[in-house]
Amino acid sequence: MTGTAHPRNPRLLTVEKVTELIEAEDVDTVIVAFTDMQGRLQGKYLHGAYFLEHALGHGVEGCNYLLAVDTEMNTVDGYDNSSWESGYGDMAFALDLDTFRLIPWLDKTIMVQCDLTTTDGTPVSMSPRSMLKAQVDLAAEQGWKAVSGTEVEFVVYKDTFEEAWNKGYQNLVPANQYNVDYSIMGSGRVEPLLREIRNQMYKAGMVVESAKGECNLGQHEIGFLFDEVMPTADNHSVYKTGAKMIAADMGQSLTFMAKPNDREGSSCHIHLSLRGLDDSTVFWDKESGERTKLYDQFIAGVLATMREFTLFYAPNINSYKRFALGSFAPTAVAWGQDNRSCAVRLVGESSSARLENRLPGGDANPYLALAAMMAGGLYGIRHELKLPDEMTGNAYTSDAEHVPHSLAEARTLFAESEIALECFGEEVVKHYVNYANKEVEAFDAVVTDWELRRGFERL
Fold it and tell me: What is the mean pLDDT of residues 215-225?
């Protein structure tokens, strides 16, 4: 993450180009999509002619339960914005006309990403994209913009998604049988899939950097060049969906679960820095060659809010299985200069100076994680927080505060957080506390394989 943030990717499409492609019948399908609470792309496939004649000028609508369901798409109670009592009304998909892109892994298809509003045009505050946009606007009021890059890992299996389902996700065959971290041979064994994902994502308007092997069996990472936070989150969502679709087309499967098995989990390290709206450096004093006070306050804010905002970094029951001693997933709320044992690692100097948040896993919703990181950092600046002492040595064995051990603990911290109320508002806090409540309740009601193996005969 060096250099300057670049302008809108020229491989994204303009409205004029979209119109031209549809009228020439080079495109016949337009996906209208938004990212839900779970970080998934949801929406509709529209016929191209219908899109031009109707949706482009008037938008699309969908049921408001799309922000009030669990991972299984079950409607659950406790949400103020959506319920049987309110009649499960509609919300509007407001097209972001800067996000048109080709979806090359689908024939003659393009996508446009959306904000969610009520039918009268009021932004839906608990929509993840709305939440990130609110932090972007808050930074802009102070003359800043945020640039970021997300590094998300995944595990590849030779089983198809259907085979994995039918096997109960047991005894799956990983694409590599040993640790292939940085291994050219190990990545080469999976290169047909990795190459296809890289090339398709490039065609979809992303700047692809590289692919490398990771520690878990069949674990890999594909990296992308940094950008401003909203395009980064938009690209992240498209990438995760597209990578799974491409793997499926090639008779394989891949997962972004934080901890799919007993080995190393999959991370989503987030690099972020503030810039001036004119792209000037604000985190580094070039004359002294040191961090600015603003940068220190931003880091302090991210650290001060980390435990209370962990719900947005680690949003699932499984997320918390990553946080283990010596796992390269953090357990200590601490910062260090190029220290991978800390939750926050400082990297780079001058215009490349940035902080890396190592807390999120591969299952993180990029909009929520980036919104939390920005909200925490801006809170630190607003309240002029003092940066605590740097962690030197092994943070895993330090006496630093620990990240939450479970979704239930993270839920409670978020629910009781005055800072969360200040940064996100009561409506958002209440909504996501209910989300966590329902996940915890659902998991607590399940009899797991672990319980059966230990207790069926021997207890």
Answer: 97
HEC string of 37-58? CCCCEEEEEEEHHHHHHHHHHH
What pLDDT, in 10s, does the model give residues 129-163?
999 999 999 999 999 999 999 999 999 999 999 99
Angstrom distance (rounded) from CA 309 to CA 312? 6
The burial class, CB within 10 Å (0-12 / 13-18 / 19+), for 302 is buried
- Looking up residue 60, the CATH number of its domain turns out to be 3.10.20.70
Q: Is residue 7 part of a domain?
A: no
Q: Which residue has the tokens 């491989």?
A: 11
- Residue 226 φ/ψ, nearest 5 degrees: -65, 165
Burial of 440 (0-12, 13-18, 19+ CB in 10 A): middle
Q: Which of 123, 182, 146 is nearest to 374 (CA)?
A: 146
Q: What is the DSSP letter of 363?
A: T
Q: Where are the alpha helices (DSSP H) in 99-183?
A: 128-141, 161-166
Question: What is the C-alpha separation between 167 and 170, in angstroms, rounded?
Answer: 6
Note the residue count of the chain: 459
Token pair listed for 116? 């969610």
pTM as predicted: 0.96
Going by the DSSP 8-state scheme, the letter that residue 404 receives in this structure is: P
* 112 and 80 within one domain: yes
Token representation of residue 136: 């972007």
